[in-house]
Specification:
93 residues; mainly alpha; flat
Length: 93
């Protein structure tokens, strides 16, 4: 039964994320913790892992319909990199 729930939730969230181009990790996180009973420490990286392909394909869809502001996106990405690196280095192993 758990496998069927996982397949159903995965499909629904995948379609939703592909249509809107984002938000997958947070949706998966809610399902993994509240519906499938995973501990938060396991659900967070699992949701990121599962959401990456859907986010990427959603991004490609948004690029195709010209909804991506690359100039602003690059500025935000470049300014976020130091914070991303700091967070990764501060994470306990």
């Amino acid at each position: 039964m758990l496998a069927l729930l996982s397949i159903g939730y995965g499909f629904m969230i995948g379609v939703f994320v592909s249509l809107i181009g984002g938000g997958g990790a947070s949706l998966y996180l809610g399902v993994l913790t509240s519906q499938l009973g995973l501990a938060t420490a396991v659900a967070v990286p699992t949701s990121l892992f599962v959401a990456l392909p859907a986010l990427f394909l959603g991004f490609l869809t948004q690029v195709r319909i010209h909804n991506v502001n690359f100039k602003l996106g690059n500025q935000l990405l470049l300014t976020a990199i130091p914070g991303i690196l700091a967070g990764a280095l501060l994470e306990p192993v």
